[in-house]
Amino acid sequence: MRKIPNSELNRLSVEDFKKADKLPVVIVLDNVRSQHNIGSVFRTSDAFRMAKIYLCGITATPPNREIHKTALGATESVEWKYFETTIAAIEHLKAEGYSVYAIEQVEKSISLKDFKLEVDQKIALVFGNEVDGVAEEVMLLVNGSIEIPQFGTKHSLNIAVSAGIVIWEIAKDFF
């Protein structure tokens, strides 16, 4: 078995990425404190052509050396915008016709295995703070919540891992 060199992977250039069709999905980071998690979400969003990332509250923004360590240039390809509050981001998204889903463990959540993005449906996925999750005041504004099934002793996953799982599950039927 031969490992494929980067030169043979036929990846898009940054310019071509910006012109390419994207999934109608906006990733919202609600007060995410780890810059490595932020960079990882950028990199995953690039890999699966998410439309945008909204960085909210204390979430750091590019250019940032620590974000760059894990993003590896994805901050140049993925469109992003900063909002002072996650509430402002959600209000903006809803005005643009997006359905907003928190990735959170709540009553009446939708299991990720049962969630399907419909063609032409615009959604936003809110990932919360590493300790507190998605803020309570944000939960009051979302259209629903998606939960990642878990079977071990821990109650949650790292945000970068959660984003990777959810983004893959949503994107896999589109490419």
Cα distance, first to last residue? 25 Å
Q: How many helical elements?
A: 7
Total domain units: 1
Rg, Cα atoms, Å: 16 Å
**CATH fourth-tier homologous superfamily:** SPOUT methyltransferase, trefoil knot domain
Largest sheet: 7 strands, parallel
CATH topological fold name: Alpha/beta knot
What is the strand and helix layout of this fold?
Blueprint: H1 14-19, E1 23-30, H2 35-47, E2 50-56, H3 65-71, H4 74-77, E3 80-83, H5 86-95, E4 99-103, E5 110-111, E6 123-127, H6 136-139, E7 144-147, H7 159-171
Parallel strand pairs: 1-2, 1-6, 2-3, 4-6, 4-7, 5-7
Q: Could you explain how this protein is built, in words?
A:
This protein has helices at 14-19, 35-47, 65-71, 74-77, 86-95, 136-139, 159-171, and strands at residues 23-30, 50-56, 80-83, 99-103, 110-111, 123-127, 144-147. It has a seven-stranded parallel sheet. Helix 2 (35-47) links the parallel strand 1 and strand 2 (50-56). Helix 2 (35-47) runs parallel beside helix 3 (65-71) and helix 2 (35-47) runs parallel beside helix 7 (159-171). It is built from seven helices and seven strands. 33% of the residues lie in helices and 20% in strands. With 175 residues, the protein is an alpha/beta fold. The protein has one domain (6-171): Alpha/beta knot, CATH 3.40.1280. The chain starts with 13 loop residues before the first helix and ends with a helix.
Q: What's this entry about, in short?
A:
33% of the residues lie in helices and 20% in strands. It is an alpha/beta fold and 175 residues long. The protein has a 7-stranded parallel sheet with strand order 3-2-1-6-4-7-5.
